[in-house]
Amino acid sequence: MNLAIFFDPLAEELVSSAFSATTLAARVTPFFSVFPDWRAADLAVIGLDEWRGSVAGAPSIHGADEVRRRFYQLQKGAGTVRLADLGNLRPGLTLEDTYQRLREIISALLEHGTVPILLGGSHDLDYGQFLAYETLERTVSFATVDSRVDMAEQDGSRPEDNHLRRMLMHEPNFLFSFAQLAHQQYLVAPDVLAALQQMHFDRLRVGQIRDDIRQAEPLLRHADFVSFDIAAIRWNDAPGYYPANPFGLTNEEAAKLAWYAGLNDRLTSFGLYGYRPDHDSHGLAASVLATMLWYFVEGYYHRCPEPDFQSKRYIRYAVGLPDSHDTPGKLVFYKSKHTEKWWLEVESLANSSVKRIIPCSYEDYFHAAQGDMPNRWFLTQALLG
Question: How does pLDDT run across 88-101, given as a tens digit for each residue?
Fold first, then answer.
């Protein structure tokens, strides 16, 4: 597939040869005059400047370029980096055309094992990111980081306010699980949170992340793709979105979540959306997003091989439980000797041949050892149905 027809090249000053040889600029293959060989890359940056789904309209400056300007000046981490920058996506004639372009492009990258990093545009563009996974012919899991839950009724609302509803209601349904992270409860209607609970999806408020950010790691480790709205970060740390919000994640917490996403060996695309450079007079938000990208890339190159729970690298723990027709007689946990990460085995009560091993935390194991069933088990049991 000739992806070059969908992209505009970059200005050479964004990835200047004047940058130090130790920076990421020296490790990226950018689209200037020749389209890069994305099949030979591990990661591919895609700039987005599509805002028709937003009530606020398009900013006057290209947000992805402002982030690139800072990202490529950062120092390369340890190890080899194979990064391509495909340039900026040309929007379609309609917003729906842009979604379909994203679907085609991301599907092609997924087929060749190249992880797309989507940068810029309104948050509803993750609908195009989502559509790419329909071609895999298997169920997938998805996590989003956002201060709000974008599940408005589609009649009369903007796409940036209802894109999550479109994904959850999409037919055919190929979504196994969903996790909503960093929402602020006073910004979300109670019936929306109740709907997520009824659908057995994970929810983790910003306050819960503030109390213990490690709770977010299993949810991001379970995701095939992640979308991150910059509005999840408090305005003082990242003044690059509208309307301003004084509360939210700190920039350090946002970078940590990007690190968790990069570490996830099953994650195959990552989107950073919603950045408006015309609200970012000093470039602080662009620097925050550039640093988040750095942590995502570093996390990617620190991935461990896909778990083999029968190998000696994992410890198996069996926890006995009181007899009940609603719960099994025991739970099986696995712990990596190398990373100390945990997993939980969930066997369907309706069909013992259906089984999932899902990411969990030490706290899940600890509570099970005390006789309390982890909520993660109930959510997965309901999804296995």
Answer: 999 999 999 999 99
